[in-house]
Amino acid sequence: MKLSHFQFNLPEELLAEFPAENRDESRLMVVHRKTGLIEHKMFKDLIDYFDDGDVMVLNNTKVFPARLYGNKEKTGARIEVFLLRELNAEQRLWDVLVDPARKIRIGNKLYFGDDETLVAEVIDNTTSRGRTLRFLYDGSYEEFRAKLLELGETPIPKHIEREVTPEDAERYQTIYAKNEGAVAAPTAGLHFSKHLLKRLEIKGINFAEVTLHVGLGTFNPVEVEDLSKHKMDSEEMDISQETCDIINGARAKKHKVCCVGTTSMRALESSVSSQRTLNPYTGWTNKFIFPPYDFSLADAMVTNFHMPKSTLLMQVSAFCGHDLMKKAYAEAIEQKYKFYTYGDAMLIL
Question: Are 196 and 24 in contact (CB under 8 A)?
């Protein structure tokens, strides 16, 4: 398939600016792959589609406040610094994006916070917007990390054209987030409330956790018509033996395995054996899933509604079936479902 197969017209008013008032009361479109049936529900109705022994695969990555604002030495120009990943803890080196990038060169220093006790020096250019920064701070590593968290802002996506609110710090995070390292939320998981998780647990649904630290590469535009030539950025992931045992055990007993989000699905597909069993793995993945693709483990998937031409849409299309996905998205636009980060959800069965 080609890039142009994933273009569609998305009305701007359908991009969600705020989350639903209650996590589990966003809308839920249920798509049945075998029959083509499309149902319209609330997210908390998800429980009706799963039974005792089924498994939900959750990505337990935790978003850190990755967006900082500093001032350039001498000129005082305000510069946005988006932390991507820590390169060296001892030397306090970070891979970042800067905006506006044209003003930031090797050797420049940036000052953060009202007291300017946190300083960063640019030591390398990595891409047009990418830089390597060395942070300078008088204090222990723990104090330095605390300072980053204090000064950082919840990294809600740029399409949400409003000020970040205190509510975002809570709502741009799944309730089961625990392993810090993501710069973007695994958004399908944002719909789960504590109450819904407890109801699922009481019904006998099991939970298997994976970690895939979502990077901005997930959202990089695809710039080649031939999808086989697109390269995903690598993202750090971890799958434990316990998770493998839960998922492999459920599959052996013919129970459903549901991936919550494209990141959970990518993690599983990055560590599957030729016998279609899940193996433990700690490392990196740059797995890019697009149609046609033969999925090995999951029977169902929870996901949000994605942007045109995005790698996320391509993965959903591979799982749903391209024609059915197009039909579902046309219906979502007609029914005014909300799209993207804080938008509504889809359950594919």
Answer: yes
